[in-house]
Design a protein that fits this description.
3 domains, outer membrane lipoprotein receptor (LolB), chain A, 14-stranded mixed β-sheet
Length: 373
């Protein structure tokens, strides 16, 4: 069951990396209400889930603070590979963002940092990624229900995005309970806690603070196993539930801005702007998005491991090769390769082109790699 599928708030910005961070599934809902602030009526976990399911959100604006301490390896090439240094910086440290939302096709996120600003905007079928520091803007088009032509983004920029990822599936792999009530951005909120039953997961708990009146997430935290310090948090510090004016989503590139169409950026990244085959491929994907083979899912719940095979038909990308070269070498009965580790997830890329990723220990990935060749 998709808890928030009927309210895809800023869904177009949700990245795959964050989906893996809260991997696993859903929950066996606890029926006993937790400790609540005297000003709030007791609500069970099941009632709070229903609140999230039935909430209506016409619009909001506010200020969000994001904090990340994911324990990522010091890969200096990461920012450049993600396309925008400002967006890439969201994977570490503390950042302030302004958000506006007026429906699934009208959303804007502004990342503020010193004298620089990076905006990701969706207005109908138009999407923009703008950087004041580099004086560049990338424009794309979203066709139908797809996200083709949308610019890249970083980790979830609102508690709603993060909560949508964590609550996509409800099944017995998770214990859901109600924590202490709290105040977020001056508003009363319930706390809903999701705790994996499988102790082999690197994720210890996911905590979601839910507005007591509007029933939307105000704060989202992920705790690593055996730690009381959140590895990732995104929370409103100010919020207004009035629908923003449509003018907020209209973007006109400032004078001196270099504008690139998203298709052109793809071709430039491929190293050949005149590659007719690449142009045909892009046109074909626009007409009918390529489904391809999805990753192989191994296991279930919070210890799910995703396995995929790299497509080497396009040759080696220098940027990717440089990035992987900075990861530590590992080997075992499964073969040899490179290992990516963090507080919440682990990745393994074998020399024969297999990729394994999950919220599990390296040892678990080695076991899976040995049995899935």
């Amino acid at each position: 069951m998709s808890v928030l599928s009927k309210r895809p708030v800023l869904r177009w910005l949700v990245p795959a990396t964050a989906a893996v961070a809260v991997i696993g599934g859903g929950a066996a809902v606890a029926t006993v209400a937790g400790a609540a602030d005297p000003t709030l009526p007791d609500r069970s976990a099941a009632q709070l889930l229903v609140d999230l399911q039935t909430a209506r959100l016409d619009g909001l604006s506010g200020t969000v603070v994001q904090r990340a301490d994911l324990g990522l390896p010091p890969i200096v090439s990461l920012a450049g590979m993600l396309g925008d240094d400002s967006l890439a910086s969201l994977v570490d440290g503390q950042h302030t963002l302004r958000v506006w939302y007026a429906g699934p096709d009208k959303a804007r996120i502004s990342l503020l940092g010193g004298d620089a600003q990076t905006d990701v905007i969706r207005n109908g079928s138009d999407t923009w990624l703008w950087s004041s520091r580099s004086k560049t803007a990338t424009h794309g088009k979203i066709n139908g229900d797809g996200d083709h032509g949308a610019p890249p983004a970083g980790l979830p920029a609102s508690p709603q995005e993060a909560a949508d990822l964590a609550l996509k599936a409800i099944d017995p792999s998770t214990q859901v309970s109600v924590g202490r009530s709290t105040k977020i951005a001056g508003r009363d909120a319930y706390e809903l806690n999701l705790t994996p039953k499988d102790h082999e997961s690197l994720v210890g708990q996911v905590s979601i603070a839910i507005d007591a009146t509007e029933h939307v997430p105000l704060r989202f935290r992920i705790y690593p196993a055996a730690s009381d310090k959140a590895a990732f948090e995104v929370a409103f510090t100010m919020i207004n539930f009035d629908r923003p004016d449509d003018a907020q989503f209209v973007f006109n590139p400032p004078a001196g801005t270099k504008v690139t169409e998203f298709d052109e950026a793809l071709k430039a990244a491929a190293g050949d702007k005149d590659d007719k085959a690449l142009e045909d491929k892009i046109a074909k994907e626009r007409q009918q998005p390529s489904k391809g083979e999805g990753p192989t899912i191994i296991g279930e719940g919070w210890t799910t491991v995703f396995m995929a095979k790299l497509d080497k038909t396009g040759g080696d990308e220098p940027g990717i090769a440089g990035l992987l070269g900075q990861l530590p070498k590992v080997s075992g009965a499964w073969g040899s390769g490179r290992l990516f580790t963090s507080h919440l997830a682990t990745g393994l890329l074998t020399d024969d082109g297999r990729v394994f990723f999950g919220a599990v220990s390296p040892e678990r990935l080695y076991e899976v790699a040995a049995s899935h060749r």
